[in-house]
Amino acid sequence: MRVSARGGQLRRRLATAVAGAVLVVSIVAPGAAAAPQRGSAPAGKSMGYVNLGDSYSAASGVMPLAAGVAPLCMQSARNYAKIIADRFGYRYTDVSCAGASTKGFFSAQYPGVPRQLDAVRQGAALVTIAVGGNDGDVFAPLVVACTSAAVTRPGAYSPCKDANGNSFVQRIETQTYPHLIAAFRAVRAAAPHATVAALNYPWIMPDRPASCPGFPVARGDMPYVHGIQAALNDAVERAAEQTGVRLVDVASASVGHDACEAAGIRWIEPLAPQGDPTPVHPNELGALQMARITARSLGLARRPSDLRWALNTQR
């Protein structure tokens, strides 16, 4: 059957968008892997620090990857937790892993990968957590739904919102929020004397229609995606408040640094990333800023030089 030029172009656009979205799914979807290993800062750094969470916590795609960690966890040697540990003298254990949901706190995420709660000990001084985006099948399905809608309904203002309505927000409220409460409570119980802090997610999309090279989402669906992420961040905040966990508000600081901004400004990469970063995940600047924001929020950075250090940190 003969395919028109316009039809061929549409198919190519759809293939490109879906390929990028499938890559995101492959990063957050379960698979077999070897067990991650614990890392530590140089000898003599005695304060215990444990980092938990998903690919945003792991900074998946920021090179180089951490040595001795399960390959499918895609844990970076330059994620925010390692930067904090090295800067402020923590002996750390980092079990963050791409694809993690709160379920991975209570059972093995991959064959041979222990549940994340096993890393939390009563003597821990600090525990940081970034998790929730993979609960309720929200993050990856949202990316797939909205990129696919944009190319299958070219010219439509908000095809993803039209097709999905409030379904993602309902999943966050009925599944993600109670799961976060259970996970945060379990961490608090495992490390009753630790400072436990939960990071929310830096913005992926702006809150209004805008030009967004490298991220084929309809203009009207940009505030829709932003609104769903706002619901997720609100769930993290409410769960933290409910369980006595401190909130690290990365989202507020990330305004103007979403995936639609230019390289060097954005903290999150679009579906067509530049360099090493993983699509729709923090780049190196994003990981550095997450470390800076966390350090400041937790009172670790007390001097002006401590607040500037992340921007000057080299690989």
Automatic annotation (TrEMBL):
Q: Which InterPro entries match?
A: SEST-like, SGNH_hydro, SGNH_hydro_sf
Q: Name one Pfam family in it.
A: Lipase_GDSL_2
User: What cystine pairs are annotated?
Assistant: 73-97, 146-160, 212-260
Q: Which residues form the SGNH hydrolase-type esterase domain?
A: 52-286
One of this protein's GO BP terms?
A: triglyceride catabolic process
Question: Which keywords appear in this protein's UniProt record, sorted alphabetically?
Answer: Disulfide bond, Hydrolase, Signal
Q: Specify the superkingdom.
A: Bacteria
**GO MF terms on file?**
triacylglycerol lipase activity
Q: Which residues form the active site?
A: 55 (nucleophile), 281
Signal peptide location: 1-34
Q: Does the keyword Repeat apply?
A: no
Q: Which PANTHER family match?
A: LIPASE 2, SGNH HYDROLASE-TYPE ESTERASE DOMAIN-CONTAINING PROTEIN
User: What is this protein's record name?
Assistant: SGNH/GDSL hydrolase family protein
List the source organism: Gordonia asplenii
